[in-house]
Amino acid sequence: MYGVGGVVGAFTGGMATQYDHPMLVFWIIGGVGVCISLVSLSMSKNLESNAESIINMTFKERIKNNWREIKKGFKIREYHRALYFFIILGAVVPSFSEYFYYYMSDVTGITKFQYAMLRLIGYVCMFSGAAFHAGCMKTSEIRYTMVLACFINLVGAVTCLMFVKNIMLGMSPFIFLIFSDAVTEVLYVCFVTLPSQVIFAKMIPSTIEASMFAISTGLTNFANLYACKQLGNIINIFVGVGKENMEDLWKLYIYQAGMCMIPLLFLWLLPTRKQVENVQKVIQFMEKEESSIVSEGEREISIKDLDPNVALRMGVINQYQAAKSITTEETTTQ
Q1: Can you give the pTM of this predicted structure?
Q2: Whose CA, among 149, 213, 257, 267, lies 20 to 30 Å from 220?
């Protein structure tokens, strides 16, 4: 739906702004908001029947409850290390998208409608990227996906540099942007957002998923939408690109291209597929215990199937049980 909304929004917004009807865009957005509010009124109250205690909490009690859930989630080392990686991935590579937009419109003459069509084409490419990820990279290690994402980002920075230096391989500015910035920017988001959401969903217990998804989404959005742009502004202090000096924009993309590979130094933070599977087994065991469907005998058998280190960190077993399990594994291996 994100892609569909992007396609419809890009086309509608492009038409409205091109022909000096920006107010129409706000009316459409407001109308969509009203529709969502009306639909929410028809939701079943049974969805909240099990959360009555949370609904009746005071603001202070809810803050404490959310904080407890976040602390519980951060006991999963594989989760919080992956979160640190995605924050680094978004924050250490500077973004100059605003500078590039004004360069396109003021220097090369790209119209608002053409810019909207670039966004539309990018969202269409998102469907292809999502299909490629689901079909070819769903079972691959997330570290390989992040390497590909960093190289896509590098290609995007290089093509922007070529555009600013007027190296367009004989194509018009609009056609060159179709095959460069519009495609690479959205593909990069696709290859980062999808894997990150999938891996977080696998490692977050269902009992605390609301708080954990909120904190992970908030931190990654902060990195991708704010921190990277502020880093770009800091770099620009030393370059001096502005309304009166757009010719030096290429220097900013030299910085961006050079910093695109920095996240690869932190790939070790990402868990392997085996580590994610071990976390999932512990979560499944914890959820069965909470539902009281596991007998004592079944519990002992199930614990033997868990990774002792992961189970210890998540509080399922104590240090004595972990040491005993590790010793048993070593003896069996020998």
Answers
A1: 0.80
A2: 257
